[in-house]
Amino acid sequence: MNLHEQLGALEVGVDQLIQAVVAPQAQSIPETRNQADAQHAPAEQAVPDVESETVEVQAQAQADAAVSEAAAPPALPTLEINRPAQNEITMTIGGQTVALRAEQIGQLIEELSNARASMTPEPPPGIPPGWRFVSTKNPVMAVQKQSNGDRLLVLRHTGHGWVPFTFSPDMVIQLYMLLTKG
Fold it and tell me: Mean pLDDT in runs of 10 for the chain (182 residues)?
């Protein structure tokens, strides 16, 4: 299965999770008082019935409570992430759980990274205090010279996968000086 097919399968899975959360909420919206009255409207009554008036008052109170609940915004589903095994992550949204293996997690990281790169605010310019990370010692790397003189450096991080960086010639010199400064 190529990357596009796997992304399509992941998108279908996310769509299914969304449908599983949204559909039950839509079905559980109570009907309004007017709809209930129209469906259960009795024929004309000649004599007032105290018992039926009590039932109507109770029904009105229940309908008012239902309308108040319907007017309130529905609770958003929560996201839970668990790690049941070393090579598996489970994500639960609105009670629906999906298990992700290493390849799917890599695809998810790549898609999230691509999306995050275009979002604001940008990540902080400095390393935030308390930031947790996993570093890769002596990563596999590849370098390509670009037509404009820039260098593309791609490093393979054990968690993030292949991470590309482009450096101008001046930045290459600064990076060299930074790495050899003692």
Answer: 53 60 51 48 50 64 67 82 94 93 93 94 93 95 96 95 95 95 84
Quick one: tokens of 122? 């940008």
Per the domain annotation, does 143 fall within a domain? yes
* pLDDT at residue 14, rounded to an integer: 56
Q: What is the pTM of this model?
A: 0.54
Return all residues near 20 (Cβ < 8 A) that are at least 6 apart. 94, 95, 96
Residue 161 lies in a domain: yes
> How many domains in the chain?
1
Is residue 83 included in any domain, yes or no?
no
CB 150 within 8 A of CB 171: no
Domain that holds residue 149: 137-182
Q: Does residue 75 lie in a domain region? A: no
Write out the DSSP string of 73-139: PPPPPPEEEEEEETTEEEEEETTEEEEE-HHHHHHHHHHHHHHHHTSSSPPPSSPPTT------SS-
